[in-house]
Amino acid sequence: MSRYYDRENLKLIPDLVRLAPQASAAYLNFEKVVYQAGEESAISGKTKELIAVAVAHVTGCPYCIDVHVGKYKALGGTMEEIMEAVLVAASTRAGAILSHATHALLSFEGAAAEKAEERNVPRGPSEPECFC
């Protein structure tokens, strides 16, 4: 039986925290501050959870989808709102991909290399061609 993306795996987070307590504490404090809702927050907790649902779909994290959908539903959110937010995220991601295609066009036409030469950006023999 596969344990890949089993919700039970989330119970192992305390074990991970113990492996890097200082960095984990910083992250958990950051998360706590970000998700706080109240007078100092410009957006509601419900809106923050809807954003989290949409981002979880972009990052493809089933754990985050599960957790944030549950929190959003508990705050009165609807599946129609979730679906609309997911479609906005999908459209935004697709738009970013399309706009990044300008780099492919420039590379194909050789403009990127010409621009680098114009800026006198030397490339050493040990420098990687791509960081992905």
Automatic annotation (TrEMBL):
It holds the Pfam family CMD. Residues 21-105 form the Carboxymuconolactone decarboxylase-like domain. InterPro entries: AhpD-like, AhpD_core, CMD-like. It comes from the Bacteria. This is Carboxymuconolactone decarboxylase family protein.
